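Exercise 7.
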Amino acid sequence: MEHRTLPNLLQRDFRKEVPGLALLTDITYLPYGLSKMAYLSTLLDAFTGEVLAHNLSDRLTLDLATDLVDMLAKQKRIQLPKGVFIQSDQGSHYTSPTYQKLLKQYKLGQSMSRRGNCWDNAPQESFFGI
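Solution. The predicted structure, written as tokens, is:
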């Protein structure tokens, strides 16, 4: 199957009326030691700014993103509203058929930032900037 990009459903409307409706995700690089790298993937609630799930790895593989979705789906702390979707960039993790199939399995929608436009996922980018 081919990697597919999807429309930007969020349209920078980060303050949805309902907590948990729009979730933002991305992966950041965390250098440590002399020449080592870790990768942090997070799911951030666009409304509250709360990190709902995170995954840390020393490898930048697809499971960094898919395991994060599994963690979100299996947590009991927060009841996600109907119509919830995840906003991401157009990176290979998020355009992957495996990732997109997993979201459908959990009945999670998907939205993607426009190519090269970090403002479409600004709260997530700002979180990593802190």
